[in-house]
Amino acid sequence: MTSTPPPPGRDDIISWLAGLGERPPGAERIDSMELAWLVHQVEQRYGVELSDDQLERMTTVDDAVAVLAEVLTSHV
Q1: Which of 12, 27, 33, 58 is deepest in the core (most CB within 10 A)?
Q2: What is the DSSP annotation of 39-57?
Q3: Which N-terminal residues, if any, form the signal peptide (predicted)?
Q4: Phi, psi of 8 (to 5 degrees)
């Protein structure tokens, strides 16, 4: 049986976003391209789809951490 990885933390999110391209240090806001990249990472790693409401709530790194924790904890 394969175990599901834990929800990503702040460092994970920042690392994933860095995979798209260079981000200014301390950047908090997530732009539309970064959000699309982040959603792709989540879908690949966790096999879940995010609702429009969840996507709209992910405007900063901390928002993304909170939404993904909520979604992935209830998904297991």
Answers
A1: 58
A2: HHHHHHHH-----HHHHHH
A3: none
A4: -70, 145
